[in-house]
């Protein structure tokens, strides 16, 4: 009988005076998180899952009354890739997000109103440092693994960079050591779309109308970059309609309808300012400039790097570049470029192949950690 | 050991040559049977390189470290002398840039172990001579239209190659039907194992 994660609840963890990379201080930070499975006595079976750009802490299971499970429910749960019968999985919403963690839509204690664009700039490194506080709150001294795709993969790499002694392994999926001009360009168009919306009001729109149109267009653009030419053809079999006499620029094509639907449903769950802040954090991401991984330390992190053949937003060569840097540093690394036609979205969809790799990788690692008594 | 049944005598010879706890790079490691055997018997630290996605999954199942790449493009980022042994076991026939790959192998590895089927073996010669067809044998099981091999070489060819490039052959072994061959290896051996250094 297949077991499932069942009903889960988002929890909150708060700490004070968080110093950011730019030396600004957030007087109070709340992190929304969920956990699945059980932390063992030795506290060495913990895995942190880091989410992508618009993800949240709700990674697996169902919230009471919901019809849809968490965003990676196919991968996280009893018997799944991240097997919660064995492992204790933590997922949290990133700093600057809008799903329970402190971000631009949170109340600024100094003014009593939402931060808006008074929120300080945040980086992937800030996100990771906040996550470390959450992990330490559980009394965990070393994570078995950190895993995530896309912006989640950036956080994984940043973990290896900032806290290499704190992780046994790292699983960056569809990621890169640094954002490239093409990635930044798409993010910039999304930001311009939001900031060009009259309702944006320099980011102080809370309490009034939101820049919904601008945010929806940003999301539409994003969606195009997450798919592939082939996956779009498959999803929207070509039967181009004739323009009729009531021609009015309505959504005549399936793909138009799909993107409009995606855009309008996105604005219900996502804050436009968070979109701006997080996309900037992605753009600034660059762990290659520091040559990735501290040279002087005798590191022992096992890497599993995964990319997807049809991903043109974070193409395989960028994962191969991660591998190249790991080779130069003599780190143990396994790399697989999974055959997929789904484009960047593949990390949410190629469940069978990802499961095969991750489940075996974690099980073998887990045995090693236990054989050596948790090092 | 479960993996043994997939191993040839040339694999066991390689395992003989490899020293305890060595750092090993296995180029074209396939399903990882040799690497697993080396890890179990010699406690080596092994890294594999393999082009087939299916084979990558098999390696990961075995808990091996493996990179999804072709051999030609997988070597340049390793520092000099990163490995005690670089192994090309039955995979040299599929390498495109042989000269460059050997240069790199000898740069990143202290020793390079190469094993390959001998195309000048008597039964292959006679297949070509008497039957007039491209030889098919245990060591070369694929027909001409279905082979991943792009190179067909003899022991003599390889010895000349080493001489021309000033690669030192420090050990060599010749095998036929699971036995070692000592007389006229280029005629009688089906398999050859060479150990090279700079």
What features would you describe in this structure?
The complex is a heterodimer of chains A (375) and B (198). Chain A is of the alpha/beta class and 375 residues long. Chain A has 2 domains: 11-179 and 286-371, Rossmann fold (3-Layer(aba) Sandwich), CATH 3.40.50.1820; 183-281, Rna Polymerase Sigma Factor, Chain: A, CATH 1.10.1740.110. Helix content of chain A is 35%, strand content 15%. Chain A has 10 helices and 10 strands. Chain A has helices spanning 124-137, 151-162, 181-195, 212-226, 229-235, 254-269, 272-284, 316-328, 346-349, 351-371; strands spanning 11-19, 25-36, 46-50, 76-77, 82-83, 88-92, 145-149, 169-173, 302-308, 333-338. In chain A, the strands form 2 sheets. Chain A has an 8-stranded mixed beta sheet with strand order 1-2-6-3-7-8-9-10, sandwiched between helices. Chain A is globular and about 75 Å long. Chain A starts with 10 loop residues before the first strand and ends with a helix. In chain A, 50% of the residues are buried. The model of chain A has no long low-confidence stretch (mean pLDDT 95). Chain B has one domain (2-119, 153-197): Rossmann fold (3-Layer(aba) Sandwich). The N and C termini of chain B lie far apart (35 Å). Chain B contains 7 helices and 8 strands, in the order H-E-H-E-H-E-E-H-E-H-H-E-E-H-E. Chain B has helices at 9-17, 33-42, 53-61, 98-108, 122-131, 155-164, 185-188, and strands at residues 23-27, 45-50, 65-68, 83-89, 109-117, 168-176, 179-180, 191-197. Chain B has 198 residues and is α/β, with parallel strands linked by helices. The mean pLDDT of chain B is 94. An 8-stranded mixed beta sheet of chain B has the order 3-2-1-4-5-8-6-7, with helices on both faces. The chains are: A alpha/beta (375), B alpha/beta (198). Chain A binds chain B through residues 302, 304, 320, 323-325, 327-328, 330, 332-339, 353, 356-357, 360-361, 364, 367-368, and chain B through 45, 47, 53, 56-57, 59-61, 63-69, 77-79, 82.
């Amino acid at each position: 009988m297949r077991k499932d994660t069942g009903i889960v609840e988002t929890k909150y963890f708060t700490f004070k005076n968080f110093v950011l990379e730019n030396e600004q201080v957030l007087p109070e930070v709340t992190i929304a998180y969920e956990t699945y499975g059980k932390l063992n006595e030795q506290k060495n079976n913990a895995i942190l899952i880091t989410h992508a750009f618009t993800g949240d802490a709700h990674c697996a299971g169902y919230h009471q009354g919901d019809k849809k499970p968490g965003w990676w429910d196919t991968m996280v749960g009893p018997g799944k890739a991240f097997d919660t019968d064995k492992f204790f999985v933590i997922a949290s919403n990133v700093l600057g997000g809008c799903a329970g963690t402190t971000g631009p839509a949170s109340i600024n204690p100094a003014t009593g109103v939402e931060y808006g664009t008074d929120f300080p700039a945040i980086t992937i490194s800030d996100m990771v440092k906040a996550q470390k506080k959450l992990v330490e709150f559980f009394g965990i001294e070393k994570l078995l693994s950190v895993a995530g795709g896309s912006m989640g993969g950036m956080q994984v790499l940043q973990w290896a960079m900032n806290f290499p002694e704190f992780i046994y392994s790292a699983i960056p999926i569809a990621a890169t050591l640094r954002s490239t001009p093409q990635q930044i360009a798409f993010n910039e168009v999304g930001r311009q779309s939001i900031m060009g919306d009259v309702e944006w009001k320099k980011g102080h729109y809370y309490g009034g109308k939101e820049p919904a149109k601008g945010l929806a267009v940003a999301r539409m653009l994003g969606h195009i970059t997450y798919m592939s030419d082939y996956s779009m053809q498959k999803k929207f079999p070509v039967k181009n309609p004739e323009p009729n006499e009531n021609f009015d620029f309505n959504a005549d094509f399936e793909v138009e309808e799909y993107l409009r639907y995606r855009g309008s449903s996105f604005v219900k769950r996502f804050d436009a300012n968070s979109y701006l802040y997080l996309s900037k954090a992605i753009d600034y991401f660059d762990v290659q400039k520091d040559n990735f991984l501290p040279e002087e330390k005798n590191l022992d992190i096992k890497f599993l790097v995964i990319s997807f053949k049809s991903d043109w937003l974070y193409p395989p060569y960028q994962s191969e570049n991660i591998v190249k840097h790991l080779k130069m540093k003599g780190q143990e690394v396994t790399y697989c470029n999974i055959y997929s036609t789904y484009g960047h979205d593949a990390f949410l969809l190629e469940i069978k192949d990802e499961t095969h790799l991750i489940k075996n990788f974690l099980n073998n690692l887990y045995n090693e950690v236990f054989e050596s008594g948790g090092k | 050991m479960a993996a043994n049944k997939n191993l040839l005598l040339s694999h066991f010879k390689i395992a003989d040559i490899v020293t305890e706890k060595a750092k090993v790079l296995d180029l074209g490691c396939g399903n990882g049977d040799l690497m697993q055997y080396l890890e179990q018997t010699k406690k080596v630290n092994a890294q594999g390189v393999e082009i087939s996605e299916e084979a990558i999954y098999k390696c990961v199942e075995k808990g091996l470290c493996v990179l999804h790449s072709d051999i030609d493009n997988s070597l340049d980022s390793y520092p000099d002398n990163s490995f005690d042994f670089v192994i090309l076991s039955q995979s040299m026939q599929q390498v495109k840039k042989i000269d460059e790959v050997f240069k790199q192998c000898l740069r990143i590895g202290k020793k390079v172990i190469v094993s390959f089927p001998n195309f000048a073996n008597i039964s292959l010669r006679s297949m070509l001579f008497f039957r007039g067809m491209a030889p098919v044998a245990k060591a070369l099981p694929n027909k001409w239209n279905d082979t991943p091999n792009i190179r067909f070489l003899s022991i003599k060819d390889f010895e000349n190659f080493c001489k021309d490039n000033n690669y030192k052959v420090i050990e060599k072994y010749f095998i036929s039907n699971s036995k070692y061959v000592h007389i006229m290896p280029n005629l009688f051996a089906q398999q050859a194992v060479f150990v090279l250094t700079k």
